[in-house]
Amino acid sequence: MVKVKVEFMGGLDVIFNKQRMHQVLIDGGEVTIKDLIDYIVAEMISNKNDIGVFVENGTIRPGILTLINDADWELEGGEEYVLEDGDIISFTSTLHGG
């Protein structure tokens, strides 16, 4: 079981009941970012029509900056990164309407 802090910024909080910060507890042995993404989609997005705002083809949608403890997730192994207690995962939309 792992406990992490998840932040949704840049307007993403709208699809999470306008709450930017969440404490998330996920059961399992090694829990990866991919597991967290699956959990977020299944358990945290209340309006299933909003799933496409967050993910595309099973991964984070292009235009959403994903950070693990303030480092780009690609530098940390992307979806394969194994979460540790206390990690802070931030998702920030860089897409803006005009």
UniProtKB/TrEMBL annotation:
Keyword list, A-Z: Cytoplasm, Isopeptide bond, tRNA processing, Ubl conjugation pathway
Modified-residue entries (1-thioglycine), positions: 98
Keyword Cytoplasm carried by entry: yes
Signal sequence interval, chain numbering: none
Organism superkingdom: Eukaryota
Keyword Transcription: no
GO biological process entries: protein urmylation; tRNA thio-modification; tRNA wobble uridine modification
Protein name as catalogued: Ubiquitin-related modifier 1
Gene, per the UniProt record: URM1
